[in-house]
Amino acid sequence: MVQSVELVLDDAGEAEIRRQWRVLAEVGVHSPAADRRPHVTVGVAREIWPRLDKALGAQEFRPLPVRIGGLVIFGARNPVLVRLVVPTAELLDLQRRLFSVIAHCPGIPANVRPGAWTPHVTLARRVRPQHLAAAVDAVASDRDFPTTVVGIRRWDGDQRREWPVARGSGR
How far is residue 145's CA from residue 161's CA, in Å, rounded to a whole number? Predict the structure, then answer.
């Protein structure tokens, strides 16, 4: 499994993503992401050493306004349907700073390194090809919307648990 560093959305942003998850479920597309809270992953590794949680929490963090944007499909064999998070200088800086803390952990994929990272919120994973058109149609008319990143958390996929490492006001 993997471990990750994630950005947590405010209540309104979380509610909107959860609504989109429900719409997808109505057309037969279940998201494994729906078993967790909506988030933006900023770093992934095979293992993130526990001692780094304190360093992650020590990074300067204030609530950060972001815009959830258009739909994108990652991959071909096991498509992943996501909503982009419109990159801003502040968001890219936060990702770069958080990534620098975990940069030496084992098993970091190239696509989460600064300069290669695509900020997004996952709507559905492993969408079957025969369901892809219905999934896109179900949420394609949803508009971009503003939300705020209100915290930083860690996820351990082996233990299937999450915990906060930093919080801004509002959560």
Answer: 28
For the segment 101-124, what is each residue's pLDDT rounded down to a tens digit?
A: 999 999 999 999 999 999 999 998
With CA atoms as reference, report the closest residue to 164 among 66, 44, 47, 39.
39
Record the tokens describing residue 53, joined without a space: 């949680």
- Global pTM reads 0.91
Within 13 Å of residue 162, how many CA atoms lie on the same side as its CB? Answer: 18
Amino acid symbol at 12? A
Residue 7 is encoded by which pair of tokens? Answer: 């950005």
d(CA 95, CA 90): 9
CA separation (Å) from 108 to 5, 43, 55? 12, 8, 18
Amino acid (1-letter code) at residue 88: T
Q: What is the CA radius of gyration of the chain?
A: 16
Structure tokens belonging to residue 131: 């369901």
Q: Tell me the C-alpha distance between 21 and 32, whole Å.
A: 10
* Per-residue tokens: 36: 């967790």
